[in-house]
Write a structure and sequence with these properties.
Rossmann fold; binds magnesium ion; alpha/beta; binds 1,4-dihydronicotinamide adenine dinucleotide; malate dehydrogenase (decarboxylating) (NAD+) activity; binds pyruvic acid; 4 domains; 7-stranded mixed β-sheet; 28 helices; Hemocyanin, N-terminal domain
Length: about 625
């Protein structure tokens, strides 16, 4: 009895102490507010070793005191420049390169720009990211789509310095120790590919590493992920690209891709290694061919903190775009349930979109609605035409979205109907391309969209890179009309429609979502990424658009706003993780503190405070 009383008393004291600590922590948090402190960095190298370390190197911006302290005196030109002067110098070079390559082949110019950016990245990370953030609209098409596609195609020739990690079929059984070769003690974000479907360019084998690098550049620029804590990963299981296999200079394994169990066990081994060394990391799967993309997502999504950007990020961006298009028609978002949507391409991207949008419709009209039970809103077209239940050897992932025979015979269509026939009969509100077939929306298909009874049909050729876009912006405005809403996966210029009118071009790319999903998952410490968190992200993206922009046909925010938008998306993701009780906290911020922040509406400030910004910190030498 006495023992029980003592134990109860002990528990009460511990509880009181805990609560006091919590209050103290809470008080400190409020007191410190959202003040951001640039902490000094501890370096254990000196002199030229610092100049050759892109993380610490400041080039001509090293102040004299630091040059003295770190053995850099005499190692640099004498004038100390500010970071703004360094930016001016780089941008002057960049613009002169632009002028000099303007009249030559576009691809040569694009690669030249990528090269000077990449060299800066290798020399001075802080300056590289500052320039990238300040000029994101101009530079995203170089570090990301479309130029990153060209870079991957030519990677064996462009490769100078390694970036990220390579795990290959030859490393079986070794990955657990290999991951410890990575120098960072902490990694927040991994983007991994097996190179099997790089943008719409197909199997590029080991050269696909360019994609994780480009995506992580956006994580740093848009989400403020700390560049010292991101890790691009390439898993080389071989390639089925004969041109690469025939190229003696190809840098990957010269063997056909592993398949079946052998393939799966390699990816399993990598995941186990990654989460063993970095238990809090988030892994984004990128550009895996569809047959593996779905299987791997199913396999890992509740076990690890991971998501597949092509399936889930793309779906969210497509949903936000369609919600924007609905509002541009002057209708409420809930009218998404009435939209007729033709999705061309039934791979990871197309199927991800249909699945997610059906969930969104269910959220709007309720699960039991016939619109949700049948596939009323969606017509899926792949390389063999309209996908129906009569399709032989139907891809199991596509089966649930196949149109019923009853339904299509009523509308005068049949299994495998051509795209143009589908458009003529369905008269869709939305025509979305995720086929990786450039020019698939021919003049005939686009003209058929004129039959749409929608006041503002949406034409969304979302395939990447530019050469794979189903149509150009100019073609869409020319053949469908000036009233359309247009978004493409890779950027196009706005279109001059004459009489002072402009056809607005949006970039419908998962770059608007994945940084916010990753950041929200990280800062909430969600133990897995739920559908609800993905919907919260997409709905947040849709909601940031104001009526005036939507009326002009602008359905996504301007790219220079991407950092602010990403912070808001992360906020939405964290709030949802808290509501769903999957948020386990991040570093010293425990779930209780997250909840308190949600209550006093300070999650956004918490996100912003945790976003890394490129600023030179003073360097302190420690041997
Ligand atoms: N804008 C964005 O944010 C994103 C765009 N994408 C793009 O989506 C494209 C597709 O990606 P995945 O689904 O992973 O590729 P995938 O290769 O798995 O799927 C392609 C689909 O297109 C279909 N297709 C091929 N030729 C066709 C034709 N002539 N007519 C109709 N359908 C045809 C195929 O049957 C297949 O279903 C890529 O170009 C990729 O860059 C992917 C993710 C995000
Ligand atoms: C944007 C992207 O993720 C893709 O085209 O695959
Ligand atoms: Mg992708």
């Amino acid at each position: 009895m006495a023992q029980a009383i003592a134990s109860r008393a002990r528990k009460a004291v511990v509880k009181a102490l805990e609560s006091e600590c919590w209050q103290l922590r809470e008080g400190a948090r409020r007191y410190l507010g959202q003040r951001k402190v640039v902490r000094p960095s501890i370096v254990n190298k000196r002199s030229s070793d610092i100049l050759h370390d892109p993380w610490y190197n400041k080039g001509t911006a090293f102040p004299l005191t630091e040059r003295e302290r770190l053995g850099l005196r005499g190692m640099l030109p004498p004038r100390v420049m500010s970071i703004n002067q360094q930016i001016d110098r780089f941008m002057a070079n960049f613009r002169s390169l632009e002028r000099n390559t303007r009249d030559g082949p576009q691809e040569v110019a694009a690669l030249a720009k990528w090269r000077i950016l990449n060299r800066l990245h290798d020399r001075n990370e802080t300056l590289f990211y500052k320039i990238l953030i300040d000029n994101i609209q101009q530079l995203a098409p170089i570090v990301y789509t479309p130029t990153v596609g060209l870079v991957c195609q030519n990677y064996s020739g462009l490769f100078r310095r390694p970036r990220g990690m390579y795990f290959s079929a030859a490393d079986r059984g070794e990955m657990m120790s290999m991951i410890y070769n990575w120098p960072a003690e902490q990694v927040d974000m991994i983007v991994v590919t097996d190179g099997s479907r790089i943008l719409g360019l197909g199997d590029l084998g080991v050269q696909g590493i360019g994609i994780p690098i480009g995506k992580l550049d956006l994580y740093v620029a848009a989400a403020g992920m700390n560049p010292q804590r991101v890790l691009p990963v390439m898993i080389d299981v071989g390639t089925n690209n004969q041109q690469l296999l025939d190229n003696p200079l190809y840098m990957g394994l010269h063997r056909p891709r592993l398949e079946g169990e052998e393939y799966m066990s390699i990816i399993d081994e990598f995941m186990e290694a990654a989460f063993t060394r970095y238990p809090d990391v988030i892994v984004q799967f990128e550009d895996f061919q569809s047959k593996w993309a779905f299987k791997l997502l199913q396999r890992y999504r509740t076990h690890y903190r991971m998501f597949n950007d092509d399936i889930q990020g793309t779906a969210g961006v497509a949903l936000a775009g369609v919600l924007g298009a609905v509002r541009a028609q002057g209708r409420p978002m809930s009218d998404i349930a009435k939209q007729k949507i033709v999705v061309v391409g039934a791979g990871s991207a197309g199927l991800g979109v249909v699945s997610f949008m059906k969930q969104a419709v269910a959220r709007v009209v309720g699960n039991d609605s016939p619109q949700v039970q049948g596939s009323d809103n969606f017509w899926l077209v792949d390389k063999d035409g309209l996908v129906t239940e009569a399709r032989e050897n139907i891809d199991p992932d596509a089966k649930q979205y196949a149109r019923s025979l009853d339904d299509i015979s009523r509308s005068g269509l049949q299994e495998g109907a051509s795209l143009v026939d589908v458009v003529r009969h369905v008269k869709p509100d939305v025509l979305m391309g995720l086929s990786a077939v450039g020019g698939l929306f021919t003049q005939e298909v686009l003209e058929a969209m004129k039959l749409s009874d929608c006041p503002r049909p949406a034409i969304l050729p979302m395939s990447n890179p530019t050469s794979k876009a189903e149509c150009t912006a100019e073609q869409a405005f020319k053949y469908v009309g000036p009233h359309i809403v247009f978004a493409s996966g890779s950027p196009f210029q706005d279109v001059d429609l004459g009489d002072g009118k402009i056809g607005r071009v949006n970039q419908g790319n998962n770059m608007y979502l994945f940084p916010g999903i990753g950041l929200g998952a990280l800062l909430s410490g969600a133990h897995h990424i739920t559908d609800g968190m993905l919907h919260a992200a997409a709905e947040c993206l849709a909601s940031v658009m104001d009526e005036e922009s939507l009326q002009k046909g602008i359905i996504y925010p301007p790219i220079p706003e991407i950092r602010n938008i990403t912070a808001k998306i992360a906020e939405a993701v964290i709030k949802e993780a808290i509501i769903e009780e999957v948020a386990e906290g991040y570093r010293e911020t425990d779930p209780r503190e997250l909840q308190a922040m949600a209550q006093d509406d300070s999650i956004l400030a918490y996100v912003e405070k945790n976003m890394w910004s490129p600023e030179y910190s003073s360097l302190v030498y420690e041997s």
